Amino acid sequence: MKWLKYVGVKRHVVVLSVLILMFLVSLQGLVAVHRIEAQNRKLVDQTLPLFEVIQSVRHRLNEQEKLFHQYYLNGQMVSFTSLVGSLSRQNQRDLNQISTVLGTLPVLEKINTSLIKLNTIAENFDKAMQTPTDWDKARDVLADFTPVASKIGQHSFELLTLVNTSVKDNADETLAETENALLWSGSMIFVLFITAVILLQINRSLNLALIEQRRLSGFPEHNPDPVLALNESGDIIYANPGAKNLVRNGVQPSPLHCLIPDDFDQLMAKAKMHDGVAKKQHELFGKTYSVELHGLS
After folding, report:
1. Which terminal Cβ of the chain has fewer Cβ within 10 Å, N or C?
2. What is the Cα Rg of the chain in Å?
């Protein structure tokens, strides 16, 4: 019985362990999924649009260059500095957006510095083009525009490279996170499988033990020899049909207590000294019976 209780407790521990492992696997998988979704969302919502933002900066730079040349060729243009300044402010907003995603970068500071120079060049060019037009000065100022615009173009290409590297790093990080999540889940599933096998084996052993217990528990009922169960006071708490038939079919009907040897106390003390087992011969109804006393815990 103690062994059966131990097996039952062990089975409950294993079941609890399986449930805890299942919870941990689900929790880890959920955390991994949310982390991967957050990384993918950042990649789609913030990083990938930067390619389009940088292209917009380059496009506005071309628009500014067109404004310079149109102004020079036409000799006049209304709100030239306002148009150039508006394009520069839009570029500034886009650069701030890039800085929010990628952080402060030296290349962004270089582009910002170049945009400020462009605004200054635009103001000087507009002054030179005012009536009377100073064409020599206008040509000199226009010549200053080209290297500044070229630097912005180079820096924007460098910025594209950085964004591409950031996208690749994010993709690699997401891939590594996915692989780790799959590895963790696979390991936990393997542990769950082993635990389930152990649990099935324990359950099988328990069932076999219960079957054996039922078989043994039915043995006294079918045993033709008398079998009694007594407490430490010597009171009969169980008698099988064999014992009842013996006293009923004796020389004269007798109580069940006649089956108990008179020296029961000594016999019980002897059993305690010999691993719970004691034997003796007992005369009853003119016959000699072999009495065995087994102590039960």
Report:
1. C
2. 49
Rounded-to-integer distance, Cα 106 and Cα 148, Å: 17
Q: How many CA atoms lie within 13 A of 198 on its CB side?
A: 15
Over the chain, what is the mean pLDDT? Answer: 77
Distance of alpha carbon 18 from alpha carbon 12, whole angstroms? 10
Is residue 132 reached through a cis peptide bond, with omega within 30 degrees of 0 on the bond before it?
yes
Q: Pull the structure tokens for residue 283.
A: 């005369």
Name residue 281's amino acid.
Q
Q: Characterize the bridge pairing of strands 277-284 and 236-239.
A: unpaired
pLDDT of residue 224: 72
**Residue 56 neighbours by CB under 8 Å, 6+ apart:** 90, 94
Q: What residue type is 276 in one-letter code? A: G
Residues 6+ apart with CB under 8 A from 173: 39
Q: For the packed helices 106-129 and 49-74, what is the interaxial angle rounded to 10 degrees?
A: 20
pLDDT digits (tens, 9 = 90+) for 151-174: 988 988 888 888 888 778 877 777
Q: How many CA atoms lie within 13 A of 115 on its CB side?
A: 24
Alpha helices in the chain, H assignment, sequence order: 2-42, 49-74, 80-102, 106-129, 135-217, 219-222, 241-248, 264-273
Q: What DSSP state is assigned to residue 255? A: -
Q: Which CATH number fits domain 2-194: 3.30.470.20, 1.20.120.1730, 1.10.3720.10, 1.20.950.20?
A: 1.20.120.1730
